[in-house]
């Protein structure tokens, strides 16, 4: 029997005040770290573009990053997967060294010409910085989970300028088909404030213009549904190829620094062979082009090949911005076939390939609305959901759990990295 005479909302006020304060601190740390990272990334990109000979030093840069992680970063090498594992199965505070290691490794990777992204860096910095508070404040494990999730949301939101998508990403990325609503307050507060912190520091995010969004018609919906299938398969193939190359390199080359050394040599020779730096770095200019005019079919193949080579051999950064590039250029290539505007399909590919590869259809749909406007929302929702379904039980984050299987039966709680082995064992059995 409840003997309290005051409304339960009164008891809620201290809880809200506590998480407003904690989330604001996490946001300030993550937003500032992301701002510094973005400014450093801008400098590295500009320096590389004006000194193209730096690409020939990429093998040495890869070796250096690999050696530093071998010597000082074994405990944090799992990156985003470590954050997801610690939220599901808390063990110990994430070492603070994760933040400077991934920051330095990503800047070096971009400076010398690897094809990597930036979300992994921002998310890892946000999660690692947030987790330091759990140690300082001696928070229990349940509250520690929420704080790390807030750090993930803050990092994602501040690096892309999408606070709502960032908040939902932190809630959605942990498990397929399930979100943790106990973290909804800290994730949203941290994401919104972190985005504002970045803007206060002077961060300017890329503006993408969707020049034409057609009215909703039966053909338009059917075309977007078909495009979503292609986007989902592209996300699945990218994730599987990247993991496959990483596993192959680890199996064949025992000394870790040699893996990015070899990958760097392959990328450098490939850049010299194709005669362009179009497929290295973030590739933001090419993404913008995809919204403006027809591009070559080779663009998404080229970016995919350069990115999986870079990430699969051990360079640091992230997968998301390269996935934006792959999706936008793939959508651009599909536009004439599906009789939809280039800018519309580029925008849908931008978010839907990411939705399939990361298994985050809701965050990706919200991101489309934040970046391209509310009119694209219905099309984006269909493309992202279909892509999510068609990518199967695979993804760029192997530590993701299966909360609710997409279609074929997969045990609840299983890591995505274990699904393939489980199915092989089931088939043999």
Condensed summary:
69% of the residues lie in helices and 1% in strands.
Fold and architecture overview:
- This protein has helices at 8-50, 58-72, 80-88, 98-112, 119-137, 141-160, 163-172, 184-200, 218-252, 258-274, 284-290, 298-312, 320-338, 342-358, 361-372, 377-390, 416-428; strands at 175-176, 401-402.
- The chain has 429 residues and is mostly helical.
- The chain has two domains: 13-200, Clc chloride channel, CATH 1.10.3080; 218-398, Orthogonal Bundle (Clc chloride channel).
- It starts with 7 loop residues before the first helix and ends with a helix.
Number of helices: 17
- The topology string of helices and strands comes to HHHHHHHEHHHHHHHHHEH
The count of β-strands is 2
CATH topology (fold) name of the largest domain? Clc chloride channel
Categorize the overall geometry: globular
Mean pLDDT: 94
Q: How big is the Rg?
A: 21 Å
Q: How many independent structural domains?
A: 2
Strand fraction = under 5%
In helices, the fraction of residues equals 55-70%
| Largest pleated sheet | 2 strands, parallel
Uncertain ranges: none
- Superfamily at the CATH H level of the largest domain? Clc chloride channel
CATH architectural type of the largest domain = Orthogonal Bundle
Q: Within the largest sheet, what's the order of strands?
A: 1-2
| Ends apart, CA distance between termini | 53 Å
What is the CATH class of the largest domain? Mainly Alpha
Protein name: Voltage-gated chloride channel
Keywords: Membrane, Transmembrane, Transmembrane helix
Subcellular location: Membrane
Main location: membrane
């Amino acid at each position: 029997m409840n003997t309290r005479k005051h409304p339960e909302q009164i008891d809620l006020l201290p809880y809200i005040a506590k998480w407003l304060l904690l989330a604001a601190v996490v946001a300030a740390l993550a937003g500032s770290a992301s701002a510094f990272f973005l400014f450093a990334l801008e400098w590295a990109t500009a320096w590389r573009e004006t000194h193209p000979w730096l690409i020939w030093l990429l093998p040495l840069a890869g070796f250096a990053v690999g050696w530093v992680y071998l010597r000082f970063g074994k405990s944090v090498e799992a990156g985003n997967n470590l954050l997801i594992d610690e939220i599901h199965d808390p063990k110990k505070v994430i070492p603070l060294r994760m933040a400077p290691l991934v920051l330095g490794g990503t800047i070096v990777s971009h400076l010398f010409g690897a094809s990597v992204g930036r979300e992994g860096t921002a998310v890892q910095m946000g999660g690692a910085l947030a987790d330091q508070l759990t140690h300082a404040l001696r928070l229990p494990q349940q509250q520690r989970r929420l704080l790390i999730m807030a750090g993930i949301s803050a990092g994602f939101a501040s690096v892309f300028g999408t606070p709502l998508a960032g908040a939902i990403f932190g809630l959605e990325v942990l498990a397929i088909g399930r979100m943790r609503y106990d973290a909804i307050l800290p994730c949203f507060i941290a994401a919104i404030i972190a985005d504002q912190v970045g803007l206060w520091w002077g961060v300017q995010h890329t503006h993408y213009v969707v020049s034409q969004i057609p009215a909703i018609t039966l053909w338009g919906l059917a075309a977007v549904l078909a495009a979503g299938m292609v986007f989902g398969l592209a996300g699945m193939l990218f994730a599987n190829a990247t993991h496959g190359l990483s596993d192959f390199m680890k199996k064949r080359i025992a000394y870790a620094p040699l893996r990015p050394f070899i990958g760097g040599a392959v990328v450098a020779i490939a850049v010299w062979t194709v005669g362009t730096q179009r497929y290295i770095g973030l590739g933001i200019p090419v993404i913008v082009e995809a919204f403006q005019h027809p591009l070559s079919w080779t663009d998404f193949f080229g970016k995919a090949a350069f990115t999986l080579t870079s990430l699969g051999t051990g360079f640091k950064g992230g997968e998301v911005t390269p996935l934006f590039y792959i999706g936008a250029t793939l959508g651009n290539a599909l536009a004439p076939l599906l009789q939809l505007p280039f800018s519309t399909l580029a925008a849908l590919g931008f978010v839907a390939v990411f939705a399939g590869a990361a298994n985050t259809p809701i965050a990706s749909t919200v991101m489309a609305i934040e970046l391209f406007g509310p009119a694209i929302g219905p099309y984006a929702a269909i493309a992202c959901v279909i892509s999510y379904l068609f990518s199967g039980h695979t993804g760029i984050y192997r530590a993701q759990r299966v909360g609710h299987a997409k279609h074929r039966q997969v045990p609840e709680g299983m890591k995505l990295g274990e699904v393939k082995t489980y199915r092989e064992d089931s088939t043999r059995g």
